[in-house]
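User: Last request for today: this protein with phosphoenolpyruvate, please.
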Amino acid sequence: MRKKILAANWKMNLLRDEAIELQQQISLFAQNQNVQIYAPSLYLSELSNEGNVAVGAQNFYFEKFGAYTGEISLNQLKSCGVNHVLIGHSERRQLFFETEELLKKKVDAAISNGFNIIFCCGEPLEVREKNEHFEFVLNQLKASLLHVSDDCWNQVAIAYEPIWAIGTGRTASTEQADEMHLYIRKSIEKEIGLEVSKSLPILYGGSCNETNANELFSCDNVDGGLIGGASLKCESFKEIFNALYELY
Ligand code: PEP
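Assistant: Here's the final one, the structure of the complex with phosphoenolpyruvate:
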């Protein structure tokens, strides 16, 4: 049985009090399940000491300390009780120019510091229209993730997030999600090995909400979700949670 994960990516949303209230509401139903909240860094220290859901950082810098104005290190995150990070989100790649080389360094730093990571991958629309999405995603994985040593894969989850589906209201069909997740799993089997491929959680992200979650999570190879917009409303997120954990 593979681990299921439901992750909320709050991005640059919610004021402090709103974040605390939403975390409290989520804690009420998320008990004992693998729910992670990727909150704005400013609130991590406070949120990590509350509730029973893991909180994670949307971003960090790979260096240990030093003259990197505005950045946050993994040691600083650890000192605030945080041990989950997102890496490779398309918004960081596109808007903040995070290169595959930088992502590889972030992966190495996070893994060697004992963090759990969600590594995001996914193609833009023009790549899918050219039918090059499988190759594109595999190249993203090869460039920044697949070098992770065999004994560290238990710290890794992958989120497949087609860029054309993030925040657009346009979600991948179950067929599109399942075939990409299967392709990722088969690629991991080929590149890393059967054991890792069987146990690796692969999450779907991209306009997943309370109306499509059931269908997406019914796919054999979809082990959870990385949820943006719909994670900002407790009721929607709760329904997505119920769909993943089959609580009806
Ligand atoms: C995301 O930011 O990772 C995401 C999937 O956003 P949304 O659910 O809003 O598409």
